[in-house]
């Protein structure tokens, strides 16, 4: 039977493979910048330090906890009714406990399991950092898109207000229409100022959280691509690369090794030593060996039972993580499909309401209809276009989130050497 640590390295293989090609898209940050920001994340750096800590613990486990102990005794013997009743004596010895056969191998497996778990945990930290970056990026794009849409609405209403003001001056329109046009313009301008402030805040927050990453000056209106593949295919791809599940599996395997090690500890390790002694001022010289064997008690049995129970706990947690990851993957796939379908419907509605607003405005300019109808039609068209823009970004974010979890967006399966090279730079 192969050691468990070999199985753990096989388990960690998908998470340490050479990264694949990243996706470059106009509505995403450049892949090189995104990866540089992610690798510089404090969360990822902390996980990298965790690997070093586990490697040190692995060396400690391989070396064992037993050490040499030197014992030195000096004494004076007094013997009555002798010409010289005082004798200087000394005793020196060295002893050490030795691991029983099999325990050292289990300790090395336990250390390797810890290192494998830490490596996968670093991949999980990189994945979580990628999720945060994607969410912050699209939050900024939504605020930028909202501000841009309000700017367009303000410009349309400003042009319309100029036409109304001219008609009022010529006596072709009542002053009430002028007030209505000015009020609509003021409201749109206020909304634009507020939206611009939110966009600036989102951009500043992105720069602070991810230094070196900046939002674009304007949002590129890139339609979200359709999601190819079945739900089961996407679930399988996500499960194959899910670091959280990998961490749970590694911890479960580590607990099983720990249970085996605790069970082996039911039999204590013996101690062997050598002793040299000089008695009666050198008249007697002693050379001997010592052997001590602790007697096992109920405490060792309790420790072994607790470790076995912890292994069962880890196995149940692994099963719970697997079930949750499958559910989240299915939900993410459905979200990507439904959000794109919703965007298409929002787009149709926005185009229809936009044409309706244009026709209503032309009719008003020809003297048919009222300004209030024109303003209301323009407001409905604006709301529909804004909803369509936000729906487009939501659909794009959902698709990119699906790609991210399947490790098809950015190369998240980086090796530790890649992190080391980044740290040196």
TrEMBL record:
<dbReference type="GO" id="GO:0015288">
    <property type="term" value="F:porin activity"/>
</dbReference>
<keyword id="KW-0472">Membrane</keyword>
<keyword id="KW-0812">Transmembrane</keyword>
<keyword id="KW-0998">Cell outer membrane</keyword>
<keyword id="KW-1134">Transmembrane beta strand</keyword>
<dbReference type="GO" id="GO:1990281">
    <property type="term" value="C:efflux pump complex"/>
</dbReference>
<dbReference type="GO" id="GO:0015562">
    <property type="term" value="F:efflux transmembrane transporter activity"/>
</dbReference>
<dbReference type="GO" id="GO:0009279">
    <property type="term" value="C:cell outer membrane"/>
</dbReference>
<protein>
    <submittedName>
        <fullName>TolC family protein</fullName>
    </submittedName>
</protein>
<dbReference type="InterPro" id="IPR051906">
    <property type="entry name" value="TolC-like"/>
</dbReference>
């Amino acid at each position: 039977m192969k050691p468990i640590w070999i199985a753990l390295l096989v388990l960690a293989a998908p998470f340490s493979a050479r990264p694949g090609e990243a996706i470059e898209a106009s509505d995403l940050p450049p892949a090189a910048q995104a990866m540089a920001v992610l690798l510089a994340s404090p969360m990822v750096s902390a996980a990298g330090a965790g690997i070093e800590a586990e490697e040190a613990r692995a060396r400690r486990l391989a070396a064992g906890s037993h050490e040499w102990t030197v014992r030195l005794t000096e004494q004076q013997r007094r013997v009555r009714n002798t010409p010289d009743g005082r004798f200087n004596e000394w005793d020196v010895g060295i002893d050490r406990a030795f691991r029983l056969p099999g325990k050292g191998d289990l300790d090395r497996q336990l250390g390797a399991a810890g290192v494998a778990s830490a490596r996968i945990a670093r991949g999980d930290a990189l994945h979580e950092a990628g999720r945060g970056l994607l969410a912050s990026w699209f939050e900024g794009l939504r605020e930028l898109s909202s501000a841009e849409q309000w700017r367009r609405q303000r410009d349309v209403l400003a042009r319309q207000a100029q036409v109304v003001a001219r008609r009022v001056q010529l006596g072709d329109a009542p002053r009430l229409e002028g007030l209505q046009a000015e009020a609509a313009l003021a409201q749109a301008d206020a909304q634009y100022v507020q939206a611009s402030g939110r966009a600036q805040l989102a951009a500043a927050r992105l720069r602070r959280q991810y230094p070196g990453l900046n939002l674009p000056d304007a949002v590129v209106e890139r339609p979200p691509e359709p999601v190819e593949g079945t739900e089961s295919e996407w679930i399988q791809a996500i499960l194959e690369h899910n670091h959280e599940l990998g961490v749970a599996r590694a911890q479960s395997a580590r607990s099983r090794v720990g249970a085996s090690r605790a069970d082996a500890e039911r039999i204590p390790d013996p101690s062997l030593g050598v002793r040299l002694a000089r008695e009666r001022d050198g008249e007697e010289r002693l050379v001997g060996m010592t052997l001590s064997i602790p007697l096992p008690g109920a405490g060792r049995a309790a420790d072994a039972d607790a470790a076995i129970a912890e292994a069962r706990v880890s196995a149940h947690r692994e099963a719970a993580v697997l079930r949750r990851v499958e559910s989240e993957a299915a939900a993410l796939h459905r979200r990507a499909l439904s959000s794109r379908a919703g965007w298409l419907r929002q787009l149709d509605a926005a185009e229809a309401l936009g044409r309706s607003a244009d026709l209503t405005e032309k009719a008003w300019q020809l003297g048919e209809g009222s300004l209030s109808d024109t303003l209301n039609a323009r407001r409905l068209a604006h709301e529909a276009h804004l909803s369509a823009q936000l729906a487009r970004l939501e659909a794009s974010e959902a698709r990119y989130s699906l790609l991210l979890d399947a490790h098809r967006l950015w190369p998240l399966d980086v090796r530790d050497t890649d992190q080391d090279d980044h740290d040196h730079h």
